Amino acid sequence: MGADSAGRGVIRRAVAGQRRDVAVGSVLGACHQIGEALVPVLIGLIVDRAVVRPDGGALAVWLLVLAVVYTLLSFGFRFGARAGERAAEQAAHELRLDVVRRVLAPHGGAEAGRPPGALVNVATEDARRVGAVNMALTLGIAAVVGVVAGAVLLLRASLPLGLLVLIGAPVLMALGHFLARPLEHRSEAEQEQAAHASGVAADLVAGVRVLKGLRAERAAVDRYRATSQASRNANVRAARAAALQTGLMLTLTGSFIALVALVGGRLVLSDSIGLGALVSAVGLALFLPGPISVLAWVGAELAKGRASAARIADVLAAPGETTGGTAEPAAHAPGELRLNGLGHAGLDALDLTVRPGEHLGVVVTDPADAATLLHCLARRCDPERGSVELDGVPLTELAPAALRSALLVAEHDAQLFDGTLLENVTAAAPAGSDPHAAMDAAAVDEVASALSGGTGGRIGERGSSLSGGQRQRVALARALAADRGVLVVHDPTTAVDAATEARIAAGIRRARTGRTTVLVTSSPALLAATDRVVLVDGGTITAEAPHEDLVRDHPVYRTAVLT
């Protein structure tokens, strides 16, 4: 499916989901436009029936009718605009949820090639622009009704003027659509550049400490300046296209109204219409630029919406990192994890069985091999050779969401979120569960005591208010609180002191009693608390035994964990 057709599908979905509000808003907006068109007609009638031939009673009646029309058109605008705005905001909200759900989908892939800032831009600004299509349709339908009502009323006053409007208005609408095409392309380029700038900014902010440590601030500023300049230039080009489109439409509209006025003036001079009809015709001629300019604005909004819809569709249609798999883990499965001849990148023919309820340590001498192992266990990639099984079922046969609910791989660089400490710990916890055991196991009570507000204290974006060791403890508590049947943890204590590490080692053991746990680490304190340890050296398993035995008997292991 092409980008254009996929984008149109996103717009259709956004409009269909809000069809009731769009319909209500359109009807009320149409009533407002009809009322606006009736005002000059009523004024013309007042001139003919109560001013040219003075009649106080008739004047009072017609003024009352005019007041009623004004009241109705005012309420029509108020409630019609409210319905249209509600449709726009609700559609944008649902699109944001769709984008976020796709980004967080267990099969992944939406973030590939897109920095976080770009995804945020898609989920916010692009969703807002597509949602605004509902408001544009609401006002556009009402504007069409206004143009038709004005034309009909002009036909009643004068056939030539009415025909002129009926022929000229569609021509103006077609020209508006044609002039909006360059704006659509400029808008798409503007959004791409803005998303790229947001992504660069997010990356720089996330790595600000590293940049300062490397004294690379100037290079970072230069990089962002260049990106921001490109975004600004794209924005200027889009604004220039919008200004050109609006200016041309205003010129065409003004010329059209001038033509209507010229024809109407000649009809008055030839006594084809009276004074009241002249007032009505002039009033209608002044009224028509309003709905016609709205139609021009609608064309610009639809152009922006189409460009943003294509970007949203691109994210929603992104292929997943992992495909296939529909099986569900057995209820109350024991939690046996098995590697059968696993081979991928630097790993070669790994055969390993982690027994249900076992507390296993894994020491990998090459960090790249450790990362590969974790990716295979988390099914962020599928092994080139062999397989990984959970309770006898290959991971490739399990549905991604079902796999995530049974097996959790907590990687070393796990990120925290802006919010309270407790919200971070319970982010993946089962509903109604008590997180305090997990917090105690990870020594998070010490972190809470250092925060203003305790567990209800905010930790800042990515845990910016915490030290490295504190962030690790909160991330570990989150993994423990998730209470998965199988938990794989990678280096959870590299930034904590020895005393806290010993406490955490005992806490993990206590919190995971009877649950399968794999610790991929080189920490002696954590490894000493395991049932056995497997050593992976050169991509293969070279030894397995209790920690104490390996420290005593295996030089490679001793070097890996004690130096």
From TrEMBL:
The chain crosses the membrane at residues 22-47, 59-77, 136-155, 161-180, 247-269, 275-298. GO terms for cellular component: plasma membrane. It comes from the Bacteria. PROSITE patterns: ABC_TM1F, ABC_TRANSPORTER_1, ABC_TRANSPORTER_2. Signal peptide: none annotated. Residues 23-304 form the ABC transmembrane type-1 domain. The keyword DNA repair does not apply. It is a multi-pass membrane protein. This is ABC transporter protein. It holds the Pfam family ABC_tran. InterPro entries: ABC1_TM_dom, ABC1_TM_sf, ABC_transporter-like_ATP-bd, ABC_transporter-like_CS, P-loop_NTPase, Type_1_exporter. Keywords: Membrane, Transmembrane, Transmembrane helix. GO terms for molecular function: ABC-type oligopeptide transporter activity; ATP binding; ATP hydrolysis activity. The keyword Transmembrane helix applies. Residues 310-563 form the ABC transporter domain. It is found in: Cell membrane.
